[in-house]
Amino acid sequence: MTPVKILSVDDSQTIRRLIGRVFRPFECEILEAENGEEGLSVIRSNRPDLVILDYNMPVMDGISFLRQIRADPDLRRLAVIMLTADSSPEKISIVARLGVRDYLIKPFLDAELLAKAGRLVKLVPRVIS
Amino acid sequence: MSLSESESRQIAESAMCRVLQTVMNSPVMALNTDDSRIPNNAIPCLEGSTSISHHRLLCTVRLQVPQRFAEMAIGLLFDPGDNRVSKIPAALDFVSELCNMVAGKVSEFWSSQGLICLIGIPTVRFNPDFKLDSGWNMEVGRTHWFCAGHWLGLVIETE
Does domain B5-35+44-158 have CATH number 1.20.1260.10? Predict the structure, then answer.
């Protein structure tokens, strides 16, 4: 079975490692990018099933990243969960218009992230032999 | 636009409790300025700083974290076998993200006042001689905290 590919786009290595830890019990391949530009490059070469995206990043922020993938016919249906410290309703409304499927505020509980991701991709428990 | 001391304390309390209890899974205690348990020796500290801005407001959030607290947190959060980064860059990144989360919670207060703010990207600096008791009462908006065996400081300044 092909493992689900999840891409974490966040300038914080702490968050990327936390995401890796959350999904470790599942058959997932975790991909990482430090900003939107790097994220676009990873998407084009690895075709993830789900992107967990930060809002505020250097080089290319989450909004610019979303605009780019929504403008690309090959990528426009890609599932994205926004994971950010910024909880203002205006920002949530902006990203919702850009097709973000869900929004999670930092700090987050593992169970919250798994519940949201599990609605978008099939998470299969990893069998330890 | 500025905050009164009690508003600042209330916002700090809400932000620190929500962030640290979730990240560290540990209770957080606010301390009074004259608490005799506060150590007066210098401790190596990491100081994260970020801005929250609006055309009517500039707010700075500074989070002061002992280096040993950051290293302990990394040890708790991640596998000991995860050796992708060395301890110090990981501690700097952890404090940067903690500061970002606290700023996010402080920004919620401004959002509730109708001010939709931009949160900056945090910077972190190392302060080898940080003393918790120096300048204790001199800095407006400064609060102190105890979490998982360590003392932490938070300064919220507004202009």
Answer: no
